[in-house]
Write a structure and sequence with these properties.
heterodimer; A: 378 residues; mainly alpha; B: 530 residues; alpha+beta; five-stranded antiparallel beta sheet
Chain lengths: 378, 530
Amino acid sequence: LSRYIYEKITNRQLFYILFMMRVVIILAILPVLTATDAEQDAWIASILSFFGSGLLMLVVVGLSMIFPNHTFVEYSQIVLGPWLGRLVSMLLLLIFLWVAALDIKIYSEALASRFLIETPVAFIAGTMVLASVFAAYSGVETIARCADVLFPVFIFFILFGLLAPLPQASENLINLEPILARGWGPVIRSGMVSSVLLHFIVISMLTPTLLEPKKILRTSFITLICATVVLTLITLMVITVLGPHNGKESNFPFFVMLRSVQLSEFLERIEVFAIFSWGFGLFIGVSVFLLVGAKGISQLFGLEDYRPLVGPMGVIWVALSIHAFDSFFEFHQSIKPHISVPLYLTIYASTYGVVWVGYILRKLFGGITVETQSPKKK
Amino acid sequence: MGFLKRYFGKSNKMTWNDQLDLSQRDALLQKTTLTTSLEKNLKTMEQIIGPSYDYGTRNFRTGGKIPSTLVYMDGLVQNQVIEEILRALMHLSLEIEGSSKYSIITAALYDLLIIKGCKKTGDLSEIFRDLAKGSVALLFDGHPEVILCEAQGFNTRPIQEPSSEIVIRGPREGFVENIQTNTSLLRRHIRSPHLWIESMVIGKVTKTEIAIAYIKGLVSEELLQELRSRLERIETDGILESGYIEEFIEENPFTIFPSILRTERPDKVSGCLLEGRIAIITDGTPFVLIIPCEFTMFNQAPDDYYERFPVAVVARALRTLSLLITLLLPGFYVSVVNFHPELIPTDLLLRISATREGVPFPLIVEVILMEVIFELIREAGIRLPSAIGQAISIVGALILGDAAIRAGLVSQSVIIIIAITAIASFTIPVYSMSIALRIARFFITILAATFGLFGVQFGILVLLIHLCSVRSFGYPYLMPLGPQIRQDLKDNIYKHWRWGMNTRPKLLGGREPIRQKRDLQPATTKTKKE
């Protein structure tokens, strides 16, 4: 049936995907709170992170708007020429691999430390990746539809997580004070950490699959706004319920907060549901990373189909995720602002930055006009 | 040896004999033609059909002159019609033959036979196909053609309420095995001339009639074309039930979920046609196939549409809940008791562990054991004659359940869980879906025993990926949920008022999206006052 468009997703679906990817990881580790000593002002940092993320997103989405029908791998080769372009793309693909491995590791650590204490981490990571391999193998449409189905569930759990501790939160509003006791410094640093987190880079691989690629800027900014609102609310809730210090010290502040919630005699330990809603969101994120990674590689080396790559990549992924970090302490050190901000900014500069520079130079000094380049067939 | 046969064998000249295989007989039938001699024709026909018991002939003379024969299949025709024909032809006093204007065939067709369906043909395979459908063939001496008159009069089951889809409120008629009755039932529901019913014959030996019913102008032409091409592709010896066709035309042979809806209810089929779907009616079975179909259609009972809004909403919600219970409850129980006992309140946990005391099996063995036993009882209950079937299944369940607990083989809590799951699985309106969910449940239960709730989550994810990747005739299986189509959510887990369902399903009824006038909401007393 030719009428039905295969391998296309709507902008709404992209919104769901991006929203879940963004919220899931931030929900879990709450970097605004745990990375720095912003403490009770972390919620201001979450609002600030909107501007930082927005700026970086302009960098990412800007290129996608110039080349709405090309993925990063394709347009980097158009702009920079085949060799430099391939080098830059390779770097970006490695980053996909790395970010997703981190995500999986965090999730498996969270599960292993709480619920499946005797299960090896590799097993949990492997199972999660297996599900993602199925999804990525089935294609971008399937992932988008899964996101369609899971999004309401996810939202329900987040609302639940926000509303359930409300009685406790209202008793402890004092935890939010004093506002800006340590000045703007820690707040800004903390905001920067959650700004640079890398999940929006998948946009540059997914834009060509959109039904309306021109509206990509709108879609991504709606996502960012919604995600920021949710992030801010969660931060507020965690600070008020747990207190700034306890929140900062815990590995998974949101879940620790939910654990302290007791709705009634019957409803205790509700954080298990939050963990699983997190799992659903994470699954979407990981399968998107796997898909765009495999697609990128297939475009890079001119393969006809990305599907044969998905399985082997999954195996590599499990191994990578196990070695992503050894302990949570190590991980927390790595997201401290003095490490993470330069690191991530370097990544942006060496991929998107290089392409931007190349593009501007081409524009200024003539050469070929980039838009008229015929799209490369994959 | 081939070349020897070519020169010395009498290969090309085939005659009717016992050595001919089925396909050779078929080919010969295609080649054989009628001659002008009545005797020869009768002999040919006898050679083709053999000494069949139900093959009947009646020799007579038309108008006292022309030797003629009436051929029919005993038991398929109405005797009255035969008498009618014979009377018309035998008592003929007109001088027809000889005048150049009329042959007896034309005269019989246009002047003599007072029967609704008459046609002339010279094709032997068509003659035999029509004879098997209940027609009568008239052979006249001197004519290489016959007249086929419809005289159907075989016994069929009366129209009854379908036992697999019983409703509290709604029409009580169901399809039967006869295709004419079935199409008439459809036509009675939809009186528009735009209801088109195409027919087609599938099955080399059985020559089963298939009808494709749809509403012209509403159904997508591409879908129709696709369906036709998939049906025309089928080359098989026989179609005995619509299930044969289902397997030939579906696009997901490995999925446990049915991707084609089957129903026995004309009202359900009519509802689907009005949404822009296509129905495939097969002769010989009351089960009509509907394409394309979605996952949520298996959650819709006809009652929902006939009951008032609040009742229907609650019913739908209950059914959705029971769908989740069918799928997840045993898995959830196993994982919580085995892996996450802290999730259960202490009192309840103590109760559960008290019932489990002394049970020799691990929990998962217990659960799987009871599920298998339940499935056995259910399966046995279907096959047994209905008089003893229920009694035996109840007694079996009671004795098995009670004795198993007393013997300490299984715990009460497991029995309760399995019983709830079983009841929940019976609320799913379509049997094939409830079987599919049961299979999925086994899979999830085993995963739960291995990984705990994480395994349940994995199971849900894999099921979800699978459901999202399945398509029914190109339309996404999980349609209004994923891809999310907001306007179609009005008739899924939630059901809107009748006056609120203004649009057809977006992807299916896209040609004519509006199905009724807007603002049909009845005026309430409050608005009347103003």
